[in-house]
Amino acid sequence: MNRFSRPDLHTALAAFALFALLAVAGCAATTGATKSMPAPSMTESARLDYDYLIYQDLLHQLQKHVQEGERSTLTTQEVNDIHARAVAALNRVLSQAPTPELYVEKAGMFWNHPEGASRSRAALKEGLEKFPDNRLLTVYLANSYVADNRTDDAIAIMDGFLRRHPKDMEARERLGQMLMDAGQDAKALDVLKQIPEKQRTPDALYAMGRVQGNLGMRKAAIANLKKAVAMDPEFTEAMVELAYQYELAKDYVSAERIYGSILEQSDSFPEARLRLINLNLKLNDPAKALELALGGPPTKSFILDAVLMFINDGFFAQGSTVLDMLTTGSAVPAEYYFYKAVIADEGENDPAKALSYLEEVKKTDRLYPHALRFKAQLLAAQGKDAEALAIAAQGKALYPEASIFYILESGLRKQQGDLAGAEASLKEGLERLKNDPELTYELAMIYDATGRRPQGMALMETVIRAHPDHANALNYVGYTLAEEGRELDRALVLVTKASKLDPENGYILDSVAWVHFKRKDLEKAWEYIGYAVDVVDKDPTIWEHYGDIAAAMGKTREARKGYNYALKFHSPDPKAVKEKLKKL
Fold first, then answer.
1. DSSP states of 71-137
2. pLDDT tens digits, one per residue of 472-483
């Protein structure tokens, strides 16, 4: 990136050295003289270079301080002084030779400054006053709003720029990426499609592929991601996204080939290895998955991610083997004991062993509240209700501001058939944690379970007004509207948003299918119910919905399959399901 128009570095250093030499000579000449000679003044060009070199030196000191971290000997006051002098030197340069790049550098001086992004924005706006409609400054200004989670402001800035410069494809690409990052996939795709095909960069094609994938346009997503990778074979993010889209399309062979090629290129991308582990588990090859996990980076985050994959797919022995990698260090982390407890309970059906592992989690560890909750659930499963409730009470005393223990106590009482007590626990939590979304959601569910659905719906509406990204509340309201056969357009908006927030949730996918079914959009309903039973394959209600949708489409064989699975997995209303089977 060009800094600003000035003599080259050698010329600048020579000028600076000449100035220093003249200053020394001047001092020497005054020795024994009756009249001192005036110090030579710097030319404007020399002063400019001098100020820039001062700025660069001070900036280097700040960068070194950051790199050294705790080893740095600079005090906070010294750092603040260096920062202030660097900004002052840069301001002097800007006053004489302003450039967009230098204003970006000034903005960068404040990205991590205590005064926040507002100072960065001020520098960028100052630059735009001198260089109106400069793309670089505009993009950085938009990014400053993104950093403050003011995505709408960032998008408005880029929109305005493009209205004035409709042929600026780099800016259009950046706007598309911002819209993608903001979750506005349809708008992002509209913007990116306006870039002529011959001018689409790998980044633009990658963004198009991602948003098309999010919108369910699987074939188009794969086509654009393949183009991105063809243009830049080392574009790892595009390769990972392409493999993921192949996974969703159930083309596991292509997905595995791409993940493997990523690992061959570089092992510094653990996400690819994790995806490959997950893929081999889907292909029922736990041995290959285990080999990949044991050959991965020995970091806690990677190991725990891999362990969760094995646990979620029911390969507990392999998960335990991977988890043992955490015991090679000097101190065994709490996560080791917590996940060993999960494996002992779910994989070995040994709650006593699970409880013994949980005892190893210390009060000082961040996992301790989760260990307490797990203990209570294990005790309740053994019929030790009083001990479980005592643990919940202990959790409330230790963590009075944590909603999980009010919810835990409510759940335990609900299991015992004490719905009034369950409601009281949630209301106790809400007295302390006003309008807490999780407590409110659980209370609404209690209302629904006790025949007070209108009150439950009213509470859920308050949750989604205050917390518009609460996936479960969105799903509840949307599904309930569909069940009641009203406001189906709104129901579709709500469940679709819930699915985008939690795309792997099979129950939400079922809701999307059910709303489409109620709207008579059977093709879409069939598509989504297929996704739902892939994710949650033992829920009787979802299988009954599968049967209903198949029957409405004349797919008798599939309908029979759905109803039979609903009965197999203990439908809450087997009589109604059997009647449906008879009518096929």
1. G----HHHHHHHHHHHHHHHHHHHHHS--HHHHHHHHHTTTTSTT-HHHHHHHHHHHHHHSTT-HHH
2. 999 999 999 999
